[in-house]
Amino acid sequence: MPQPVEVVIMGQTFSVTSDDGEEHVREVAAYVDRTMREITTRGKVVSSFTAAVLAALNIASEWHKLRRNVADMDAAIERLADRLATAGN
What gap in Å lies between CA 52 and CA 21, rounded to an integer? Predict the structure, then answer.
């Protein structure tokens, strides 16, 4: 069973247990911390809860765009593979 990893996000310590490993947990926590800090320095965010929600929205948006890009690349690869297959005949 994985050991908990202590990370600090916006000055608060969290104990996180994950099968993905300590390095991954620390990288993700650092990314969340950076995103929340960017949001708080850009605008008039008053609470850490609001910053967390806005950070979650930004991160989810990034994830959806990346997922769409991967799907587009998969489709392009499939089209190229089909063209190669028919060109070889």
Answer: 23
Mean pLDDT, consecutive 10-residue stretches, the chain (89 aa), reads 94 97 97 95 86 96 98 97 88
* Separation of alpha carbons 87 and 79, rounded Å: 12
Termini Cα distance of the chain: 53
Q: How far apart are CA 36 and CA 59, in angstroms?
A: 10
DSSP H helices in the chain: 22-42, 48-87
H or E segment at 8? strand 5-9
Question: Which among 39, 63, 42 has a CA at the least distance from the CA of 51?
Answer: 39
Residue 85: half-sphere exposure toward Cβ, Cα within 13 Å: 6
